[in-house]
Amino acid sequence: MSNLLVEIGNTALKAAWSEGMTLGKTFRYQGEKMFEFIDSLVTKEKPSVMVISSIIDISHLEEERLQGKCGRLILLDRNHTYTAVSNNIPEYITPDRVASVIAARYLFKGTGSMVFDFGTTLSVDLIGPEGIYEGGNISPGCRTRFKALNRYSRTLPLVDTPSTVNPTGDSLVSSIESGVIGGIMFEIQGYLSQFPEKTPVFTGGDALYFAKRMKNSIFVVCNLVLMGLAIIADNYAERND
């Protein structure tokens, strides 16, 4: 039987079916009826294992309901930290980052990696060559920075992510564009300079946007979180065969 992987993030839900480590078609949903959307994915097939990573807390009643729709339910949220702890990852780490760390360990075993997740926040997680989690940082993501400038100032407009950016601005809008994008690029380069021995891995909604601007060799794994959830599901299936 196939497994169902679900990532509930700050702005959207992503889901995919998997067979072992192989991901199938990815689904995306943006709206308030997330659990109804999950129900729609399992109307024709009951997954062997359903793994849900969620930034929102899943209620006990919702957990019981979901358990009836799969062979085994594994939750990663603020109240379900067993997966993090059992993988030697601090329980304060958000569920999506837990899954990313697990995936990076698998993909870059023996080399060590540094995972940049470009979403609502920009998170950076460091994993040693033996898979040991070495810590991480969080700062505002790209669009969050644009929104913050607009919200907390009286004169700055809301600017969207530009397709091209100059080193310095020659107008109010271009000054904001080059300030935000350039600032993130300097931030990235600072991490790369500080940890040159680690393999940089980009993931998240803006991963490709910043990867195109890099001169360094980096890996882009857009579905890193879903890959981590697939590993969690597959490990459970192997232990219970």
Give a written overview of the molecule:
It is a single chain. The chain is of the alpha/beta class and 241 residues long. It has two domains: 3-109 and 224-239, ATPase, nucleotide binding domain (Nucleotidyltransferase, domain 5, 2-Layer Sandwich); 114-220, 2-Layer Sandwich (Nucleotidyltransferase, domain 5), CATH 3.30.420.40. It contains eight helices and ten strands. Strands 3-2-1-4-5 form a five-stranded mixed sheet, with helices on both faces. It has a five-stranded mixed sheet with strand order 8-7-6-9-10. Helix 4 (95-107) crosses helix 8 (224-239) and helix 5 (142-151) packs across helix 6.
What's the short story on this structure?
By secondary structure, this protein is an alpha/beta fold. The protein contains eight helices and ten strands. Helix 5 packs across helix 6.
What is the C-alpha radius of gyration, as a whole number of Å? 19 Å
What percentage of the residues does DSSP assign to strands (E)? 15-25%
Provide the succession of SSEs: EEEHEHEHHEEEHHEHEH
Could you give the distance between the termini? 12 Å
Alpha-beta classification = alpha/beta
Strand order of the largest sheet: 3-2-1-4-5
> How much helicity do the residues have?
25-40%
CATH class of the largest domain: Alpha Beta
What would you give as the CATH superfamily of the largest domain? ATPase, nucleotide binding domain
Main sheet specs = 5 strands, mixed
CATH topology call of the largest domain: Nucleotidyltransferase, domain 5
Residue-averaged pLDDT: 94
How many helices? The count is 8
- Total count of domains: 2
